[in-house]
Specification:
The chain is α/β, with parallel strands linked by helices. 29% of the residues lie in helices and 21% in strands. The two termini are 38 Å apart.
């Protein structure tokens, strides 16, 4: 039987069961419990209402641009026309290419965590969906990864754009920053995240769209928070 570490036992002392607490208080505890040496992520988990009055389950997939960034470091690749390669490099892309990048993708050489594609190159990348799709790397206009304005797209993904999607049980999770962020910045990111999700509520869903919200850190424990 696996034993809990001394660090984890100390964290458990701050556990709050069967009670919701204010977001501000939860963030204080989450930051206090992030006692590992690395810069732990601060994460929000939501339970959303999937059931629509007209039948069927809701599938939510979108992006949220956090005002203070996510703290996550993405290695961004850009697939574009040859004449736009210099623009992409100057904008901060880590990997840039045209047909040569497609050749690397075709053999599974995916040395990046996000792929941005210009509309003109989508026709060429489409057949490689079987390689990119399972890894969540297929460019998608709704997710900001198919773009004509490469400078903006690269900046957004490098800084604070986070992708969210629900699972079949209505769970949705995302990072809202790092333990090194101030509580004020984390709170601002949290509020923006919640309001962004609320805006995705379809007219066919009745009642509250967000049924529950929780905050935690990478190696911490979860707190149920008030207000949705």
């Amino acid at each position: 039987m696996k034993k809990n570490s001394k660090r984890y036992k100390e964290i458990l002392k701050t556990s709050i069961k069967n009670k919701k607490i204010a977001v501000k208080d939860a963030l204080v505890l989450v930051k206090k419990n992030a006692t590992t040496k690395f810069d732990e992520s601060v994460d929000v988990s939501l339970k959303i209402n999937l059931k629509q009055s007209k039948g069927g389950d809701l599938s939510l997939r979108t992006v949220v641009n956090l005002p203070n960034g996510s703290g996550k470091k993405n290695k961004v690749a850009v697939l574009c026309e040859p004449e736009k390669i210099d623009q992409a490099k100057k904008a901060g892309a880590d990997v840039v290419g045209s047909d040569d990048l497609i050749e690397k993708i075709a053999i599974g050489k995916l040395d990046f965590t996000k792929l941005i594609c210009t509309p003109a190159m989508m026709g060429k990348i489409g057949k490689h969906g079987k390689v990119l799709g399972p890894k969540g790397l297929m460019p998608n206009p709704k997710l900001g990864t198919v773009a004509s304005d490469l400078t903006k797209a690269i900046k957004d993904i490098k800084f604070g754009l986070v992708e969210i999607r629900n699972d079949k049980d209505g769970n949705l999770a995302s990072t809202i920053g790092r333990k090194s962020f101030s509580s004020e910045k984390l709170l601002e990111n949290y509020n923006h995240f919640i309001e962004s999700v609320k805006k995705e509520k379809p007219d066919t869903v009745k009642g509250d769209f967000i049924k529950g919200a929780y905050l935690t850190s990478t190696m911490g424990i979860s707190y149920k928070v008030e207000g949705k």
